[in-house]
Amino acid sequence: MSSIAMLPRRPDEAYIVQPFLSVIVPMYNESEVLATCHERLCDALDQLHRPCEIIYVDDGSADSSWSLAAAFTSPHHTVRAVRLSRNFGKEAAMSAGLAQAAGQAVIIIDADLQDPPELIPEMVSQWQAGFDVVDMQRSKRHGEGWFKRFTAAAFYRVINHISEVDLPANVGDFRLLDQRVVREINQLPERTRFMKGLFAWPGFKRTTLQFERDSRQAGETKWNYRKLMHLAFEGITSFSTRPLRMATVAGAMISVAAIVWAFIVWSKTLLWGDPVAGYPSMMIMMLLMGGIQLLSIGLMGEYIGRLFIEAKQRPLYVVMDESVSVGYEQSRET
Ligand code: UDP
Ligand code: MG
């Protein structure tokens, strides 16, 4: 059984109306921006004139993020807070949010206000126009250096070239998903959750909106290059086995070249009786072959490691605490 199915049932499931929209906010040590975030989110949701739900997923914050989020209320919307038992990473936090989201549509948004909540009504109108997924593409990346932009572009080029799913470039986790897409994603059993890929995997009718990504309001990014490298590698190895194929092809090409070369060496020796020579070329070949072999073994190890993690079937996250505050308009309808 998957961890998603084992989640505790929503405490108020029996009496709540289905929210029009669920907004998932994964947060990790975001106490500095959280109040502004909640305010701006509520303002944006009020414009929809429909009962919505906001789900704050506290990814094991060490600051006051949890107590803040658990105390948030809204007159018109349900505010839920889910607290994970430790820091499981944003990918797991989003999965936790998706498992809880009951809305007809679901939006994922960062707590640091880099994704402006003011765009929500526009995303919703695209959804109402019939699209199941609204991807938000960053037209400008404020507060990010050329190196980050360059490596990001390279990553999208590589993964789109070698994997079957189509990852739109410069689309982060900020997006709208119809509930039926969410249902499909919740059923994907993998433990290594490369969410950008999982969001793209179900397909459905998609559209892309452009937006300018702001720089962080406060606090600092939780991503460093080591983590981003890890994420990129995880994305590639969980969505494609092409690297393994490339290792096979490289091996085959080198073998053919070796046979041709052996033939040349052999005929030279027969014709001219070459004395022993060629120490440099032999060293070069040995080192080159050794390198390629180690690389291929390491690559295989990466995939076997993935299998190992999947085989253990550990839950993606552990929920430690939950809190719900139902907006009065919704409780009145019960
Ligand atoms: N986040 C999280 N768990 C983590 C790291 C980050 O839930 O382990 C949240 C974080 O609080 C923020 C969002 O994920 O709401 C994006 O994180 P961040 O701003 O650090 O990433 P960036 O915007 O630099 O890509
Ligand atoms: Mg951010």
TrEMBL record:
Pfam families: Glycos_transf_2
GO-annotated cellular components: plasma membrane
Membrane topology designation: Multi-pass membrane protein
Signal peptide: none
A GO MF term: glycosyltransferase activity
Keyword Metal-binding appears in the UniProt entry: no
Residue ranges of the TM segments: 246-264, 284-304
Annotated family: Belongs to the glycosyltransferase 2 family. GtrB subfamily.
Domain Glycosyltransferase 2-like as annotated: residue spans: 22-184
Superkingdom of this protein's organism: Bacteria
Keywords (A to Z) from UniProt: Cell membrane, Glycosyltransferase, Membrane, Transferase, Transmembrane, Transmembrane helix
Coiled coil regions, renumbered to chain: none
Protein name (Swiss-Prot/TrEMBL): Glycosyl transferase family 2
Protein's cellular compartments: Cell membrane
Keyword hit for Transmembrane helix: yes
